[in-house]
């Protein structure tokens, strides 16, 4: 499985996520930042939204490239979010993924109905 629908440009988001992690760790050392707590919170939220977007885009890429079906796309994203929860800085952000979980459950139910 390789994706490629977006010409692998979505991989740049992974670099941005890693860079943001380094920048967040270094924010306290930056003497030019006047409101460090608010700035750090904003950067943490930016990191988390970018990480979430990266994972979603990666799954859509595999789907559009024919590597995964629609069911696989949602299941794999759901699995990604389970393992990524510890990477989020913002505790409430993983709650956004609950909607994906509901999609996952609906998809499983619909699949089971179709098999009956």
Supply database-style keywords:
116 residues, 5 helices, 0% strand
Structural class: mainly alpha
| Average pLDDT rating | 82
Beta-strand percentage range = under 5%
Query: What characterizes the major β-sheet?
Result: none
Shape: elongated
Description:
The protein has 116 residues and is mainly α. The chain has 5 helices and no strands. The protein has helices at 12-26, 36-64, 70-84, 93-96, 98-115. Helix 1 (12-26) runs antiparallel to helix 2 and helix 3 packs antiparallel against helix 5. The longest helix is centred in the middle third of the chain and has 29 residues, at 36-64. It is elongated and about 60 Å long.
Topology overview:
Layout: H1 12-26, H2 36-64, H3 70-84, H4 93-96, H5 98-115
Helix pairs in contact: 1-2, 2-3, 3-5
Compact description:
This protein has helices at residues 12-26, 36-64, 70-84, 93-96, 98-115.
